[in-house]
Write a structure and sequence with these properties.
The chain is mainly alpha-helical. It has one domain (2-66). 43% of the residues lie in helices and 9% in strands. The protein contains three helices and two strands. The chain has helices at residues 2-8, 33-39, 52-66; strands at residues 13-15, 45-47. Strand 1 (13-15), helix 2 (33-39) and strand 2 form a beta-alpha-beta unit.
Length: 67
Amino acid sequence: MCMSACIKAGIVDYFFGSFYDKTIMSSDPDLNVFEIAERSKEKLSIETDILREACLDQIKRGNDNLR
């Protein structure tokens, strides 16, 4: 839903710290940004894995705190 809102707002350039990793992240519905981009009328630029390890570590720590 957040990605759809960004597309509707006219944002076309996206930068993510880590590509979707199903082993530590969950989503419902289970769609990643590339699947959403395929359905967009706009051409989107998506860069992933910027500071990948640091982002995955932060996500894991956040998940651990939720348990």
